[in-house]
Amino acid sequence: MVMSLSKTLKGLHWDKIPGDNDGEVAARGILYLLIFQQLGQLVRWSWGYNVLLKKKSEYTEAELGEEEEQSQEAQLERGDYSESSTVNGENEPLLIGVPYSDDPLPGKTISSGTPSDTEFESGSSTPIPRKPYLSDSDVISNGHANGSQEAILDPAGYPDPDSIANQHQTFRQESTNHINTFPSIEDEYVPPGPKRWLRRLSRSFKSAWTFVSTRVTCAASRIFNALPNPLQFVLRKVGFGLFKVFQAVWANMNPPLWAMLVALIVASVPKLQEVFFTPGSFIENSVTRAVKQSGGVAVPLILVVLGANLARNTLPQDELSNKDPKVEKKLLIASLVSRMLLPTIIMTPILAVIAKFVPVSILDDPIFVIVCFLLVGAPSALQLAQICQINNVFMVAMSNLLFQSYVIW
């Protein structure tokens, strides 16, 4: 439409550009559309994809989590909710139904109750002893006058500490000579050949990366600790905020946003522009030409997809059978009014006043004002239908919205 208007409408030449012609007008109009399109894609594939049109499962889980938090807060306000596992008081045992005896074990002094041998019945929950083995203090408290560290097996069935020590020693020998290290699963058999060398190369890279990252972390920690406390506090707050922002951005990234980021980097670095757009170069003949060919196919493909959506051929049968006509009608009316009617009523006079009286150079370009008016009254983006189909949400409503926007309005 912009290319057609640049050839047919009179008075679109910009007087600030000497020798302006219809081709330059169309090129500037497409450039303005491209900038607006990137901003719109940024909003659609970030906020729209991850918040407004996210998957049903994620939305349901979020709603359930909010309802559970609200119910817990209400119970806490009433004093009815407690996170402990008590039933009739704080002293209720964790194993409900297992009787406990207050009699201490023979030869020992125990402050808390232990499972009773006489009252335990078959078929009930197995009682768990409070101490898995005897410590040195327990052995001494048992009254061994000869001073030996020999521990006996008491009637409650506590295991021998020597056997536990032997198990620990065996685990040390089977592990990587460190008591806190589990046996490595990477020590499995690797057949000879390229796989063995690739495994060794991968381990070498991991070791080098660990070494470098550890040194850098230690050096950064020493520098940070040498700074004054107020400066450390400010840096810690700023670093935590940047980390939260980076974490949120990373969680919301998807292929369209990565493509936009790559395009922005290429468009902002002149050296990369020379690499990708120098005629006759290898990158221009392979990568850039492939992207251009894909872009040439995009417009006819978009028209085919739009036709399929308007014909409602892309909707699954279960969505057609489960739709709610009243809710869908309200959603459709609200979407059409907020997208097609209100922007035109509100933005059209604002754009006219700004273009007439605000001294901004780009507002003197007639094709820029036309692009702004076209975008204000343009239909909803077809990408919204793709997002709905990806996440399986609002597909019937979006199909009706596209039909009303492109055909009726």
Report on this structure.
There is one protein chain. The protein is 64% helix and 1% strand. With 409 residues, it is an all-alpha fold. Among the domains are: 151 residues, no CATH class; 32 residues. It has a two-stranded antiparallel sheet. The longest helix is centred in the middle third of the chain and has 33 residues. The protein is extended and about 70 Å long.
**How much of the sequence is in beta strands?**
under 5%
How would you sum up the major sheet?
2 strands, antiparallel
Rg over alpha carbons: 36 Å
Which structural class do you get from the secondary structure elements? mainly alpha
Features:
mainly alpha, 409 residues, two-stranded antiparallel ribbon, single chain
Nutshell version of this structure?
With 409 residues, this protein is mainly alpha-helical. Helices cover 64% and strands 1% of the residues.
